Amino acid sequence: MSANGPVLDVRDLRVWYGSTRGAVRAVDGVSIQIRAGEVLGLVGESGCGKSTLGRGVMGLLPDGSAVDGQVLFQDTDLLKVSDRQLRRMRGPDIALIFQEPMTRLNPLMRIEDHFSETITAHEPKLSKAEVRRRSLEALGGMGIPPTRFRNYPHEFSGGMRQRIMIALALVLRPKLVIADEPTTALDVLVEAQILSILADLKRNFDTALLLITHNLGIVAEACDRVAVMYAGRIAEEGDARTVFSQPAHPYTRELLRSVISLNTTGLHYIPGAPPSLIDPPAACKFHPRCPDAMRVCAQLAPVEQRLSAGQRVECWLHGPGDRIPEGGREPLEQERIAVAEEA
Amino acid sequence: MADAGALLEVEDLQVHFPLRGSFGARLVGKDVGAVQAVDGISFSVARGEVLGIVGESGSGKTTLGRALLRLVDPTGGSIRLEGEDVLGLREREVRAMRRKVQMVFQDPHASLNPAMTIETAVGHPLRIHGVTRDRADIRNRVSAVLERVGLSPPDQYLGKYPSDLSGGQKQRAVLARAVILSPSLLVADEPVSMLDMSVRAKILELMLGLKNDLDLTYVYITHDLATAKFFCDRVAIMYLGRIVEIGATEEIFANPRHPYTQSLLRAIPDPDPSRSIPRDLPRGEVPDAAEPPLGCRFHPRCPKAFAPCGWEARDLHDMLEQRWAVGGQELFEAERLQLGDLAGLDQPGSRATVPSATGTGDDVATLLDRIREDDSRERIWHGIESITPRPGGAVIEFHPGHDPVLRPVGGAEVACHLYDPELAEVPEQAPPA
Predict the structure, then answer these.
(1) CB 3.0–4.6 Å: which of B37, B158, B228, B319 could bond B52 by disulfide?
(2) pLDDT for position A343
(3) Is the CB of residue B400 less than 8 Å away from at least one CB of chain A?
């Protein structure tokens, strides 16, 4: 691995689930990279495949799912290593932070035992005093007082449990952390606390972080780069500031407009609902809802383009011009979408 | 508070849930206390107005909403709907009252009976309240209201089951069911927070349209300041069972006065990347409503708290724990060894003894002085009047605390001592921040 190479390099990942109605293409050809000390935000509406992507990277997919492509973690393809080796990597190399902290802590184990189990599983030769020292250091970093070390999970509030989860994920200093909606169940003030903890993480430990969220505000707040996912594919990816100030994909633009923030003066929304992943629309999957749709959008799948502003985008508005057939730039006549067609 | 135009008047409303306690405690009739979910709340809602009740989880906002419909029974205070005393109603009369007040809950998936078709569910209130039993009539009325909420053409939805609908469509059906009896007041508890970002705006737009068409009045309960700002005429900010600030929406958002409101507004992650969340936000979380902090309930987390806010022993314990959490293991072990059992600090009280491990109070007093020098910016030092060494430990006297009450400030009402001319003049005991 080169010194500046990405910690995580996902290439053309596909994750399909089997269902009675056909294959669900939850992730359908996704490529992303994250470097050390970088936070990549993965956003999208429910059902766009963002959580499946996170789980696919961790190798935590349910039975009956098919995976293709490459997930390179420091040049090791995680899709090819044995279960045993993958288990060994979870913790010291890759850690996962979930949404619901209560369901991820064992209610019958003290916080102390959670930590000693995690640490000794990977470093069995450490002395008890050293295990304790490392645990307290990780907890202290999250603002959990040492006096609570021997408490049980139910004795903590929701925000504290999430911090314990983060401390537990970080105690082995992983190089890559995947956080799936880490603040969704929390109040706004506690959410702000967790976000500043995550920001310190990359600053202090040079951790690479994949932050999966549906909240665009959090992405703007915490991420260096952002990938916008729609129907199993990355519609647009680039520097967070650039993507938010000059969205190149119509979906990104419309999604940003539909967010209700403190500056909202009028309501806006995207007509229609995200498509079924079993039988998605042909060509560009967004074309039935897209206000800018052209004829070509319903005929050919868009080609990834890199723009001068730095982001990559899959949208015919940005070319390539020579691939657009004659008359392809004419506006597409779309079917009218009923008001209640929604997610 | 008698207001001619008021549809709903709530005065000093109190909902306490008694704690059960242990078997022994119940046997001897010991009072184990109560969760003070709603603790002395007053407001009124004018006809046609949208009042927002904004608060974090544990603020009591949902309990307040349920109390308005008598889904929980308040333990004190009064609610008047169109001048009628809601709390004095008998069971039979409560049902009649609910023709005028309807509720929309957060989770549309749980609000609809999975075994009922949309036609049955939306038409159910007509049967319950005995408006009509005629099938054709019910179908006509249901079709009309489905059309109104955007589930159109209605024929396509009448026979469907909730599982056939998306989240947004279910919430439309729930709204249809709520307005089919033409109520005057709709209590909406987080009606959009379970929906996807792109659907929220559509449902809010529908609610605004319904309000105008049907002359509705809304009490909109939410944790989301952004939708409240857009949707409400007035907002009340709740914290731990009380209203800390109430006023016109523009006024509250342009000039937030309560430190809690100020913190909330600064903490919202905004999609504008040029704006970022400040780091000096209140730490910790909403405390236990069974034993709320003395004085102002926000004081332990307040970045502007000062002497009269109600400092007490529990705050001292929290401060020590926070110091040990960030200070590292050596600091913790060195300081903890000098102190005795700190469990005594967990009782509310404005006087406390910090026990010494060695038996002399001088050690403890010296230690506390050193901690104060280390971080004199801690707000708690404003509230400590004296530290006196005694045999066995150091006695801490806190400044007497006061309960803040809502008082008019500018265009709003705020419950904060910073705006009390008598208290704000109290000379500061500790170095100012």
Answers:
(1) B228
(2) 67
(3) no
| Position B77 pLDDT exceeds 90 | yes
Give the pLDDT confidence score for residue B433 in this predicted structure. Answer: 38
Q: CB distance B268–A217 less than 8 Å? A: yes
- Domain boundaries along the sequence of chain B: 1-18+40-100+183-269, 118-176, 308-398
Pairwise CB contact (< 8 Å): B285 & A160 = yes
Cross-chain CB nearest to A217 (options B57, B253, B271): B271
A-contacting residues of B 267-326, CB under 8 Å? Answer: 267-277, 279, 281-283, 285-286, 321-322, 324-326
pLDDT tens digits for range B217-255? 999 999 999 999 999 999 999 999 999 999 999 999 999
Closest CB to B321 among A145, A159, A215: A145
Whether B203 contacts B195, CB under 8 Å: yes
User: From CA B152, how far away is CA B145, in angstroms rounded?
Assistant: 10
Distance from CA of B145 to the nearest CA of A (A): 14
Interface of B with A in 189-218 (CB under 8 A): 195-202, 204-205
Please answer yes or no on whether A263 and B270 come within 8 Å at the CB atom.
Answer: yes
Contact between B195 and A136 using a beta-carbon 8 Å cutoff: no
Three-state secondary structure along chain B?
Answer: CCCCCEEEEEEEEEEEEECCCCHHHHHCCCCCCEEEEEEEEEEEEECCCEEEEECCCCCCHHHHHHHHCCCCCCCEEEEEECCEECCCCCHHHHHHHCCCEEEECCCHHHHCCCCCCHHHHHHHHHHHCCCCCCHHHHHHHHHHHHHHCCCCCCHHHHCCCHHHCCHHHHHHHHHHHHHCCCCCEEEEECCCCCCCHHHHHHHHHHHHHHHHHHCCEEEEEECCHHHHHHHCCEEEEEECCEEEEEEEHHHHHHCCCCHHHHHHHHHCCCCCCCCCCCCCCCCCCCCCCCCCCCCCCCHHHCCCCCHHHCCCHHHHHHHHHHHHHHHCHHHHHHHHHHECCHHHHHCCCCEEEEEEEEEEHHHHHHHHHHHHHHCCCCHHHHHEEEEEEEEEEEEEEECCCCCCCCEEECCEEECCHHHCHHHHCCCCCCCCC
pLDDT in tens, A257-281: 988 888 888 888 888 888 888 888 8
- What is the chain A residue with the closest CA to B201? A267
Say if B337 is an interface residue toward chain A (CB within 8 Å).
no
Nearest chain B CA: its distance from A155 CA (Å): 12
Q: Which of A140, A188, A221 sits opposite B325 (nearest CB)?
A: A140
**What per-residue confidence (pLDDT) applies to B1?**
44
Q: Mean pLDDT, to the nearest integer, of A118-128? A: 91
A143/B325 Cβ within 8 A: yes
For domain B1-18+40-100+183-269, the question of CATH label 3.40.50.300 is answered with: yes
